[in-house]
Design goal:
By secondary structure, the protein is mostly helical. Helices cover 69% and strands 0% of the residues. It has helices spanning 15-33, 38-47, 55-60, 63-84, 90-110, 125-143, 147-169, 175-180.
């Protein structure tokens, strides 16, 4: 069916603009949340000295946090490889199952990380629930050959859970900041 004259065809927004928009929203939320602390944050950023990971600081972390960091970094690297690699091949399936396992451990172990919030879960634990809900649904979509839903879910998990939390983890003063910049 043709378009009526005078009405331009609207092209749907691709992934990149949606991702940029979501990162902008995250930056705005972080900016508002850190509002009262900006002076201290800028002072920490001014004193930042990038260096190799502080393994002494890593050794002092609790076991759940160590497991969380190692599996999250491994999932971040493998997820980047999966995003760049050709889909549907044997490598994609094997690496995908490995990534799902890493993400499951990363999310699951966060349920044990409560020492940072006086023994209670924090708002960041909402990402845990979201991940543990969406991850099996994304795998189920792949099993049912629903490629579009599988792609959206996995990309949402990768960019949402890892990109957003990566920025949150490196807020000045947090453990990752201290490990690499403190």
């Amino acid at each position: 069916m043709s378009q009526p004259l005078g009405k331009p065809v609207r092209k749907p927004m691709g992934f990149a603009p949606w991702f940029a928009l979501s990162m902008g929203v995250v930056a705005l939320i972080l900016a508002l949340a850190l509002g009262p602390f900006w002076l201290a944050v800028f002072q920490m950023v001014g004193r930042a000295r990038p260096h190799a990971p502080d393994l002494e600081l890593f050794a002092d972390l609790s076991t759940p946090i160590k497991i969380h960091l190692i599996t999250a970094l491994a999932a971040l690297v493998l997820g980047g490889v999966l995003m760049a690699a050709r889909k549907g091949r044997a490598f994609h399936r094997l690496a995908g199952w490995t990534w799902v396992s890493l993400v499951s451990v990363t999310a699951g172990v966060t349920l044990l990380i409560t020492e940072l919030n006086d023994g209670a879960w924090s708002l960041l634990h909402l990402f845990t629930g979201w991940t543990l809900l969406i991850l099996p649904l994304a795998v189920l979509a792949a099993k049912r050959h629903n490629v579009a839903r599988h792609r959206r879910s996995m990309m949402g998990l990768f960019y949402g859970a890892f990109a957003i939390n990566f920025f949150i983890a490196f807020i000045p003063g947090r453990t990752m900041w201290q490990m690499f910049f403190g």
